[in-house]
Amino acid sequence: MRRMRDIVRLPVIDLNSGERLGWVKDILYNEKDNTVSGVIVEKDSLLTHPLEDMSRDDIVSFGKDSLAVKNPEGKKISGASWSQKVGNKVFNGEGDIKGTIGDIYVDNTVQKVLGYEISDGLFADLMKGREAVFEENILCESQDVVVIEGGSLS
Question: Average per-residue pLDDT in the chain?
Answer without folding.
Answer: 88
